[in-house]
Specification:
It is a single chain. By secondary structure, the protein is α/β, with parallel strands linked by helices. The chain is built from 14 helices and 11 strands. The radius of gyration is 22 Å and the shape is elongated. One of its GO terms (molecular function) is oxidoreductase activity.
């Protein structure tokens, strides 16, 4: 998710009020203080990608400083390197590395998952359920699904988790880039079991995010809201791509368009994507294909959001618009341009001509460019120059 939506949502939510007063960061009463015999919750975190690793780190640091006798967070990732990196940074008093998903399922009271795609999420929760049916939990567990998924998957996960006694599921996607996550300023959306949301909300704010938006008990609402937010971003990317392409065809320098964006749309995220298109900087963060690995999680790359993730989100949004008979023609076009850009990049990779390993979804501009007869990823080649 990008700084663009984060900026807009921060402005809207920070000014929201009820009866003239600002809404609180957490829309629930604080949970009852545990008795002296209560034990701190054992937290598990599955998926240490670009976002997950930062959220897990912030959560571990906050609990280490503010929760007395808090046990180290138990982390698991398909690639052990991500776990090792976090352990080296925080140490044994804040992080433990799980040997398996089964260990996370049996040892943890609250389990967060931040995975790359729907298939990875379904596979992970199937494994959780199989494990807990063989080893029924003696007390309550809360599963917190933070990935960007198609809404109906939440219902499938609920069927799995609710089949195990004492287990509850909430959906809780977040808005913000890794840099926003690093500052613990994420906007957190929640839907599902009320008591579980209350407990998790006070665990995440202010450790991981600045505010929680409650969308009620229907588990599908939070994933739907996340896709609506992503549609705002994707639509903005498409408009930028088309505008930059028209400027190139009409002989106006991309630097002039970028300056205009900064003057009339001073949103950090929009400026950042404008800068990428203006300077042909399309390096992204990798989300490897499930065809390559089972139980896939997001892996760190460089700076952006991989176009594969953008295509997945666009596909989810288009499916949602069809279900609700609510057309979004701009998203249809954006989806086509994303696929075109990925096809071109794949051809370049096969020919050994690629300039970036992972294409960021701002590379959507390549789709608009080739439709206009321009070079896809280098606007300075064969540029159109209009004479005065």
């Amino acid at each position: 998710m990008t700084d663009l939506l984060h900026s807009a949502l921060h402005s809207a939510t920070s000014k929201a009020s009820v009866g003239g007063a600002e809404t609180p960061p957490v829309p629930y009463s604080r949970p009852v203080t545990p008795g002296s015999t209560a034990y701190p919750s054992q937290i598990g975190f599955v998926g240490l990608g670009a976002m997950g690793s930062v959220m897990a780190r912030n959560l571990a640091n906050y609990r280490g400083a503010h929760v007395h006798a808090s046990p180290p967070i138990l982390v698991w990732n398909r690639s052990p390197a991500s776990c090792d990196k976090l352990f080296a940074e925080l140490g044994q008093h804040k992080i433990r590395i799980a040997k398996s998903l089964e260990q996370v399922a049996t040892e943890c009271d609250i389990i967060f998952t931040a995975l790359a795609n729907d298939e990875a999420v379904k596979s992970t929760y199937t494994k959780f359920t199989e494990t807990l049916k063989h080893t029924p939990p003696p007390r309550g567990k809360i599963f917190v699904e933070m990935s960007t998924i198609y809404p109906t998957l939440a219902g499938e996960l609920d069927i799995l988790i609710s089949s195990v006694p004492h287990c509850h599921l909430i959906t809780s996607p977040v808005f913000g880039t890794p840099s926003v996550a690093d500052a613990a300023q994420l906007l957190i959306v929640m839907s599902g079991d009320y008591r579980s949301k209350k407990e998790v909300a006070y665990m995440l704010v202010p450790a991981v995010g600045r505010k929680v938006v409650d969308l009620g008990g229907n588990l599908e609402k939070a994933p739907t809201f996340k896709l609506i937010g992503n549609s705002l971003i994707l639509g903005t990317l498409e408009i930028l791509a088309e505008s930059y392409t028209l400027a190139e065809k009409s002989g106006i320098a991309s630097s002039e368009v970028h300056a205009l964006v900064k003057d009339i749309f001073p949103a950090p995220g929009l400026i950042r994507y404008s800068d990428r298109m203006s300077n042909d900087q399309f390096d992204g963060i990798l989300f490897p294909s499930l065809a390559l690995v089972i139980l896939n999680v997001a892996c760190s790359g460089t700076t952006g959001f991989a176009i594969d993730g953008g295509i997945k989100d666009a596909s989810h949004i288009r499916r949602l618009t069809a279900v609700h008979n609510s057309p979004m023609p701009l998203i249809d076009i954006a989806h086509q341009h994303l696929i075109t850009a990925r096809a071109i990049h794949t051809s370049q990779v096969q020919a050994g001509q690629e300039t970036v390993d992972v294409l960021d979804w701002s590379g959507i501009v390549a789709g608009a460019r080739v439709a206009a007869g321009l070079e896809p990823f280098d606007h300075k080649r064969r540029a159109v120059v209009q004479e005065d």
